[in-house]
Specification:
The structure holds two protein chains of two kinds. Chain A is of the alpha+beta class. Helices cover 52% and strands 16% of the residues of chain A. Helix content of chain B is 65%, strand content 2%. Classes of the chains: A alpha+beta, B mainly alpha. At the A-B interface, α7, α8, α11, α22 and α24 of A face α14, α15, α17 and α19 of B. Chain A: Its main location: membrane. Chain A: It is an enzyme of class 7 (translocase). Chain A: It is a multi-pass membrane protein.
Chain lengths: 676, 567
């Protein structure tokens, strides 16, 4: 993804201003009932201004109309600005999409025809060779290739994509950097991942989420109630023997209805999705983001989430008749050129525990890098080949008699390592099996604290692992998760999710394999790894482009932040009304009953400046809160009680007090400048 | 203000709090359909009713069915009462020989008693026969109270049930509530009142010769039996025009205290019962605490204002508090307390003239009604009204803890918000809309006795009282005209059923939902923060809606009084 641009950079603000005016189109405004009412009132007052209302100076009326229109414009601007932030990202994605060409297989040998990617149909087969961009989302059906997915994920390290298994999905716009693959297109034209991403970051596909709908209903309800309250004032005033100018009633209405939150509501939603996109997570719907905030149970895969995916060497185990130092030295030599964390941990173990002093590979050594085909790595030193790798891979590359005592002993040894929760690697030197390296799971630093935080927030963590219960229990205790599911099969996972949901809890999980797909679909929040299969990516309601399962925890935080921002601004908006009442009620009624002047507790200069100040405050508060709406309120993991106390004191009490100060200050300015 | 005055108020609050749990346990048994000690005696009566009406009390009803049966039943009661009032001239039980009640008056009264409002445009002892009072009104007093409690039960079931399609059986609910709760208490209460000197007789009136030798007609009748349910069922329709200020309705300081307690007894019990029904009694106590804060604030302001009296009179040399329109036997504290209670609950019985309160003292009862009578509130209506505010409070503030709002284990979503807003908007619409109408139309302007903001307050109070199903009169409003009878009747009808139906719909919607188990991440709906939030939401929503009207009524009235101008 592109680097985040500053929120108020000119590149974003100028187009947003233009869009803000374009959004005054009544059809767009109607999507937001409160702003629609505001615009209608502004339009009526404009008309009234043209006709001229007795009792009010034209200059005053002009200012009222101006500020009412600005209120509407600030609202559309907020939305435009939120959308604009996504649009910059969409532009670069669009450019990628435009240049895509496909080598469409013609079904005879390897012949193909070059066609624009946009014409590809689902089910067609394309050939992708080195340096080609993959033209459409699909599944590798033949071959292995390394693919650079930086265009989507921003991560430049290439990943392996191969036919069959859990790494078969490829995404349009990513580049094959070695080998060639045949890909079956799995997305309908215009429905691919890239298309979805463009739509998502642009906010074009945005539909109101359930929670947004409920909030909109509340805002409409408040608007109706205040409409009644204001519409009945003329009769009350006539009873008191007077009349209130329509322009003043309009001002009262607009300050009372929840314009602040209504103006910012869609910007909050867009910005929430945008934060997720910046975080390299694509949510397929806003509903999924909200659900993330509600999650009660997190199912976390052990590997990569709780333990560092790369295991650390903890022990060398030599076969009978082999010196352990021989094994350690061979393992070290085979790993010196291996820059993976596992390789480095083997080197470190050999040096520290077994005091092997080999600083570098001797000259003329020939390194055998890890390949997807052999699943082995190693080195050839002076004609002697040392390989290390998974037991089966080693035995496949160096066939041995399965009944030989060495092989049987190795099998026993590696089974034992496996049972204890570790991963065994076999080491073979010059065709002779030496023994095994015990790679052990290491619980990530800081996860224990994270889980404690989650517990405080009322979220339970369940570790999912294929390990046996004993190992699983040991790791679960070490990591501090609340529960674990050992020897988990996909069916077990699905059953666990259903059970938790049956008890009314919302479950989040992440997964990448095809066999994860049912569970991903069942979970309320299913985050599929981008490296996973197409089936998994289809089943989940979010895709993590970085394929980092730990991010599930942050996703929950982002979901909560979105809801909190909405709640905080609603509370602020409603609490604001108290001060506005104290500004406007005495101002419009003082002519009827002079005694009501005592309600002017802010000591506003004149009735007209009081009304103008309230309406100016009501308009200006919107742009003032745009940064908060776009960035979201500060979120820290804590239990609901203290969180509520904190937010209520900031946005509830703050919302009650701030407008008193704000209106007073504006009134000082208005009366100093003789605006009213 | 006196020490004994405050002592009375504190004593009342303490006794009310003590009543919550025992009344709540009793109500909870009925809510669950369990047997009470009265089942042995009255069980055959209950079963007899079901057999007569062909009802299976175990048959569960969906919210739609529940609502439909409730509406039909209430409509039938309305027609029945209307018929009795229109025909009272030819019916027996009419020792004074009163003629038929006029069409608009009968409509108004029938609606009034069916909706638990008990707004009385007439003086009971001078208009209604004993039969009308007993058959027409006292029965309604029972059944309208039972209807309110039944709706509350249905809503509780909505919160408590999980993935259920039904919310109980309306017929079983009202039968059990009437037989096992209202009837036994009323029998004891009536006996207590008779022992305290309240008449219970079928003779019409007695003529007496006063010391001055003038002849006086003293109205009598079956007062005690009507009095008991009038208070307990938050009905408020007195036998006499003077209501609980009349020595035959409310003879002693003790009856006054017991009457006040009885107004709140079922309301506080229902709050406790709600907590019990949702499996956490703290939930009920939290609601009671929020109600308590609102009540204490109201009663304190009223007492303070009444005790402070009228500065204009002080200048004229009349010292002391405001005793205008108050019964000397009760004094200022007991009158202010009674006024706050009767309007906090939707009772409407009065022991003093609210119209004669000082402007701000009178604002308290008015504002209590306008808040929706959710401070303890009418039987059933108070708790379901308060729960509507709780739903909105949870929705607005619940988002601030970063979760979809949930209340006592149920997620609050679009449908609940829509229905709650609908139910809450009815009151402002009817009160402000009808007041606006009456304050411009000549028929409306003919109503108020006083001029200026005080006259406006009289109209506003009338429609607030009707729409809120309170029934107390500010007085000063000549409401017995076709215009007011019709409009006030409509206000009572709208204020009752346009709230009940959405509430039952919420019950149905909630019942169908899954239960969400609470965790430390759930929004806390017990404790000080929540109580403060509830109070805030009720005050802000109620206050903001009615502030313009209050400013032009009691507030302007008060400020004029401070400047030496009276209306």
């Amino acid at each position: 993804m592109t680097a985040p641009t500053s929120m108020f950079s000119a590149a974003l603000v100028v187009p947003a201003m233009r869009d803000a005016v374009a959004k005054l189109n009544p059809r767009d405004l109607a999507r937001n009932p409160v702003m629609f009412v505001t615009a209608t009132v502004a339009a009526l007052l404009t008309l009234l201004l043209a006709l001229g209302e007795p009792g009010l100076s034209t200059g005053f009326q002009l200012q009222l109309v101006l500020w009412l229109w600005l209120t509407v414009l600030f609202g559309t601007f907020a939305e435009a600005l939120a959308e604009g932030r996504g649009r910059a990202q969409a532009a670069s994605l669009r450019a990628t999409k435009a240049e895509l060409r496909a080598k469409l297989m013609l079904g005879v040998g390897d012949t193909y025809e070059l066609v624009p990617a946009s014409q590809l149909e689902k089910g067609e087969i394309v050939l992708v060779e080195t340096d080609d961009l993959i033209p459409a989302d699909g599944e590798v059906i033949e071959g292995v290739a390394s693919v650079n997915e930086a265009a989507i994920t921003g991560e430049s390290a290439p990943v392996i994509r191969e036919a069959g298994g859990d790494r078969s999905a490829v995404t349009a716009g990513t580049r094959v950097i070695s080998d060639r693959i045949k890909v079956r297109v799995t997305a309908e034209p215009g429905q691919g991942f890239l298309d979805r991403m463009i739509a998502l970051v642009e906010g074009a596909e945005r539909r109101k989420t359930p929670n947004e709908i409920a909030l909109t209903i509340l805002l409409v309800g408040l608007t109706i109630i205040f409409l009644i309250a204001v519409a009945t004032i003329p009769s009350f005033a006539s009873y008191a023997g007077g009349a209130i100018p329509v322009a003043l009633l309009a001002a009262l209405l607009i300050t009372l209805i929840p314009t602040t939150i209504a103006a910012l509501l869609s910007a909050i939603g867009i910005a929430g999705m945008d934060r997720l996109v910046r975080f390299n997570v694509l949510a397929k719907s806003g509903r999924a983001v909200e659900a993330a905030g509600d999650v009660d149970v997190l199912l976390l895969d052990k590997t990569g989430t709780i333990t560092i995916g790369d295991r650390q060497a903890s022990e060398f185990r030599a076969l009978a008749g082999v010196e352990v130092d021989t094994l350690a030295e061979a393992a070290l030599l085979a790993s010196l050129a291996d820059e993976t964390p596992e390789g480095r941990s083997i080197v470190a173990l050999a040096r520290e525990r077994y005091a092997i002093r080999v600083e570098a590979l001797p000259a003329g050594s020939d390194v055998v890098p890890f390949s997807a085909q052999t699943r082995l790595s190693g080195v050839t030193v002076a004609g002697v080949t040392i390989h290390k790798g998974a037991v089966d891979s080693v035995l496949k590359a160096h066939p041995q008699d399965e009944s030989a005592p060495t092989v049987q002993e190795l099998r026993r040894m590696t089974d034992e390592i496996g049972r204890s929760g570790g991963t065994p690697l076999a080491v073979i030197k010059d065709g002779r099996l030496l023994g095994a390296i015990h790679l052990k799971d290491v619980v990530k630093a800081g996860v224990r604290e994270r889980f404690a935080e989650l517990r405080k927030m009322g979220i339970r963590t369940v570790m999912i692992t294929g390990d046996n219960p004993l190992t699983a229990a040991a790791i679960a205790a070490e990591a501090g998760v609340d529960d674990f599911l050992a020897e988990a099969t996909p069916e077990d996972k699905l059953a666990l999710i259903r059970r938790e949901q049956g008890e009314g809890r919302l479950v989040a999980m992440c997964g990448d394999g095809t066999n994860d797909a049912p569970a991903l679909a069942q979970a309320d929040v299913g985050v599929a790894m981008n490296t996973g299969t197409q089936a998994a990516r289809e089943a989940g309601n979010m895709v993590d482009l970085d394929s980092d399962p730990t991010k599930l925890i942050e996703v929950v935080g982002l979901g909560k932040q979105l809801l909190m921002t909405r709640g905080a601004l609603t509370t602020f908006s409603v609490a604001n009304d108290v001060a506005k009442y104290f500004a406007i009620i005495p101002a419009i009624f003082v002519a009827l009953y002079p005694g009501l002047g005592v309600l002017n507790i802010m000591g506003l200069a004149t009735p007209q400046s009081a009304i103008l100040s309230a309406i100016i405050f009501n308009a200006l508060i919107i742009p003032c809160l745009v940064p908060l709406a776009l960035q979201g309120v500060r979120y820290r993991p804590m239990p609901a009680g203290p969180l509520l106390a904190r937010n209520l004191s900031i946005y509830g009490l703050g919302g009650l007090v701030a407008p008193f100060a704000g209106i007073k200050l504006i009134d000082l300015a208005v009366s100093t400048l003789h605006l009213a | 203000m006196t020490l004994s005055g405050w002592a009375l108020i504190l004593l009342f609050i303490a006794l009310t709090a003590a009543l919550a749990k025992p009344m709540g346990l009793w109500l909870f048994a009925l809510y669950e359909g369990r047997a009470t000690p009265f089942h042995r005696l009255l069980g055959p009566v209950e079963r007899g009713f079901y057999r007569l009406a062909g009802i299976d009390p175990t048959e569960e009803q969906s919210w739609r069915r529940y609502a439909l049966h409730l509406l039909l039943f209430n409509l039938a009661l309305l027609l029945f009462t209307y018929a009795i009032l229109r025909l009272q001239g030819v019916l027996p039980g009419n020792p004074q020989g009163f003629g038929a009640v006029g069409a608009d008056g009968a409509f108004n009264t029938a609606v009034s008693f069916t909706t638990n409002t008990n707004w009385q445009w007439y003086g009971g002892e001078a208009t209604l026969s004993n039969l009308s009072q007993m058959l027409g009104l006292t029965i309604q007093n029972f059944l309208s109270a039972a209807t309110g409690i039944a709706v509350a039960f249905a809503l509780f079931r909505g919160f408590a049930r999980r993935e259920a399609k039904t919310i109980g059986n309306f017929w079983a609910d009202i039968t059990r509530i009437t037989l096992y709760l209202l009837l036994p208490i009323c029998v004891v209460f009536a006996i207590f009142l008779i022992a305290s000197g309240v008449p219970q007789t079928f003779t019409g009136s007695v003529d007496a010769t006063t010391l001055e030798g003038a002849r006086q007609t003293i109205a009598l009748g079956p007062v005690a039996s009507q009095e008991a349910i009038k208070m307990l069922g938050t009905n408020g329709g007195g036998f006499f025009n003077a209501n609980s200020a009349h020595p035959f309705e409310n003879p002693t300081a003790l009856t006054n205290l017991v009457q006040m307690l009885s107004i709140f007894s079922i309301g506080v019990g229902l709050s406790w019962c709600f907590g019990k029904a949702v499996g956490d009694t703290r939930q009920g106590w939290a609601i009671l605490a929020a109600m308590g804060v609102l009540f204490a604030a109201g009663v304190s302001i009223a007492y303070w204002q009444e005790a402070a009296g009228n500065p204009v009179l002080h200048q004229l040399g009349v010292a002391g508090g405001n005793m205008e329109g108050k019964e000397v036997r009760f004094g200022i504290a007991a009158s202010a307390l009674f006024a706050a209670i009767t309007t906090a609950a939707s009772c409407g019985a009065v022991n003093a003239m609210h119209d004669s309160f000082t402007a701000l003292g009178g604002l308290v009862p008015l504002f209590n009604i306008q808040l929706g009578e959710v401070v303890v509130g009418g039987v059933g209506a108070g708790i379901y009204g308060f729960l509507l505010f709780a739903i909105l409070a949870v929705f607005v503030a619940g988002l601030m803890v970063g979760r979809t709002p949930e209340y006592v284990g149920k997620k609050i979503e679009a449908r609940e918000v829509k229905l709650a807003v609908l139910a809450i908007a009815v009151l402002p619409l009817v009160i402000l809309g009808f007041t606006a109408l009456a304050s411009v139309l000549p028929q409306g302007l003919a109503g108020p006795l006083n001029k200026g903001p005080h006259g406006f307050a009289e109209i506003l109070y009338g429609f607030s009282s009707a729409a809120g199903n309170n029934g107390s009169a500010f007085a000063g409003l000549s409401a017995g005209t076709p215009f007011y009878n019709g409009l006030l009747g409509a206000a009572m009808w709208l204020g009752r059923y346009f709230v009940i139906v959405p509430v039952l719909a919420i019950a149905g919607s909630l019942a169908a939902k899954r239960h969400v188990p609470a965790s430390s991440g759930s929004f806390p709906t017990t404790g000080g923060l929540w109580i403060g939030l509830l109070v805030g939401i009720v005050l802000i929503l109620g206050g903001l809606t009615f502030l313009p009207s209050l400013a032009l009524g009691p507030i302007a009235d008060h400020l004029a009084m401070v400047r030496g101008q009276l209306f």
